[in-house]
Structures are given as C-alpha cells and as structure tokens.
Design a protein that fits this description.
This protein has 7 helices and 15 strands. It is α/β, with parallel strands linked by helices. It has a single domain, classed as Carbon-nitrogen hydrolase (Nitrilase/N-carbamoyl-D-aminoacid amidohydrolase, 4-Layer Sandwich), CATH 3.60.110.10. The chain has a 6-stranded mixed beta sheet. Strands 7-8-9-10-13-14 form a 6-stranded mixed beta sheet, covered by helices on one side. The protein is globular, with a radius of gyration of 17 Å. It comes from Nostocoides veronense. Pfam families: CN_hydrolase (PF00795). InterPro entries: C-N_Hydrolase, C-N_Hydrolase_sf, UPF0012_CS. One of its GO terms (molecular function) is hydrolase activity.
Length: about 260
C-alpha cells in the first residue's frame, strides 16, 4: 500500500477557502497513492477556538465536497483530516459542534465518520465547545484485506482506545493531529508505543506552522507494526510518500504472538 501523509502548514492569516483549495490541490498531486491523509482541523485550526463556530459545516459541506472530488480524481482513499462538524441537533451535553474525521472512498463516497472521543483542553476548548464521540470507527483499506481504525490527536494518550480498535479488527491506525511543538516528543513516543503494543501499523499526520499563538510540532510519521519508524517529517510542510508492506503485520503477529497472550 502506497501512502501519502500531507503535513500541511498554515497560519492565522490564510482564509479558510484558500486553504481548502490548497489542501485539495495537494491531495490531487498524490496520484498513484492508495491512501492519502490530512491533519486534524487543518481548516478551522486546532487552537484558535474563536474560529470554530463560524467555520463549522455539515458532513456534506464544502470540505468533504472538495476532498471527495479530489479522491475521485486520483482514485485513492482519502482521510480528509477533521472538520468542525455542525450537528443536526444538540448532543447529550447540549452542544452542536464536534471534532469529526471523515474518509472519502476512491469513488468519492463518504465511507467513515469518526467523532473525537477524548476532547483536549482541560475544561476549555474542545470540552467546553464540542460534543464527545463514543464510537469505535474502522474502514476497510481497498483491495488489501486490511482494516484501519480512526482516532484523533489527544486520543493517542489513551491506550485502551487502541486495544478496542484491535478487538474490532484493526491492524492499521490512522491518527491526524494538531499537536504542538512543546510536547512533540510525547507525540513521537506515544505513536511508537501504540504500534508496538498493538502490533499495528501507525500512520500519524500532524500540522506544521503557527496558529492561535501555538507552534505546531510536525513530525508526522509512518511506523511499522514492530515499532520501526519507516518515515518521519520535519517541522515544516512536507509530504511523506511511503510504501508499506501490510503483509508484514500478520507475519510479525504470528512470529511474536503478544496479542494472543493477553489475559485481561
């Protein structure tokens, strides 16, 4: 499977419509890849909470429309990163926004919707403004027989989520993020840990640049089921192109059957 990880860089000055067009152009430039992934909240930004209400959109809004068209054009599965979704009705906490990841099929259909379970902000930001998701979401990787599970940024700190994803049949984790530079070493270590402990391929896609006063950490990566870093981006905008042998996952699990020895 050939994967393109688009580590998009941006700042507060770029209009959302311009950034959306730029992201779609970057996706279209990845023809020949089987899977393309974008970061978390690359449109409305991850830390400028004041923009979220105005930039919220439904699942059939302009972001998924633009990226679904690009997915169709290059015939690839496209993880669109995440948007601020405007819910059709308030959730259990009375909020009408969610941090929602979307995946478009090679024919442009919306095939996976994941609403972020663990909201970051310690009472501000996401917990104050957004509903939490409560569903494990997976998506089949076309023609491979393998299954990817979706999570987002802060989710990475909660290993029990990934165990549940494994139990749901996942052997690849797709993790977009808006992870800041001061904690980028946590990002690196936790991503490798999730790969090692679950014997899963981990594909992370972070943002670059500075927004809302925060410098983003970059360091998007593709990590094998053995925990080997196959590719890692620097701190600036970059596209990683990586060929992954998904057959190695089953071989590794058979040769070193950690998951079979679970007792709890």
């Amino acid at each position: 499977m050939k994967v393109a990880v688009i580590q998009l860089a941006y700042d507060d000055a770029e209009p959302l419509a311009t950034r959306r067009e730029r992201a779609a152009d970057l996706v279209r430039a990845q023809r020949g890849h089987d899977l393309v992934i974008l970061p978390e909240l690359w449109g409305p930004t991850g830390f400028d909470y004041s923009r979220w209400e105005a930039s919220a959109e439904p699942l059939d809004g302009p972001t998924i429309a633009a990226l679904s068209a690009a997915a169709t054009e290059i015939e690839a599965l496209v993880h669109c990163g995440s948007i601020v979704e405007r819910l059709t009705e308030p959730g259990v906490e009375g909020r009408t926004l969610c941090n929602t990841s979307l995946v478009a099929s090679p024919t442009g259909e919306l095939v996976a919707v994941y609403r972020k379970i663990h909201r970051f902000g310690f009472g501000a930001g996401e917990p104050k403004l957004m509903e939490a998701g409560d569903q494990i979401v997976t998506v089949g990787l076309p023609t491979t027989g393998h299954t990817a599970a979706l999570s987002t940024c802060y989710d990475l700190r909660f290993p029990e989520l990934y165990r549940r994803q494994v139990d749901a049949g996942a052997d690849v984790f797709l993790i977009p993020a808006a992870w800041p530079m001061p904690r980028v070493e946590h990002w690196r270590v936790l991503a490798r840990a999730r790969a090692i402990e679950n014997q899963c391929v981990v594909i992370t896609c972070n943002t670059a640049g500075t927004h809302g006063g925060y410098q983003m950490g970059g360091a998007s990566a593709v990590i094998s089921a053995k925990g080997e870093v196959l590719a890692e981006a620097g701190p600036a905008q970059e596209v990683l192109s990586v060929d992954i042998d998904l057959g190695e996952i089953g071989q590794w699990r058979a040769n070193f059957p950690v998951l079979a020895d679970r007792r709890l």
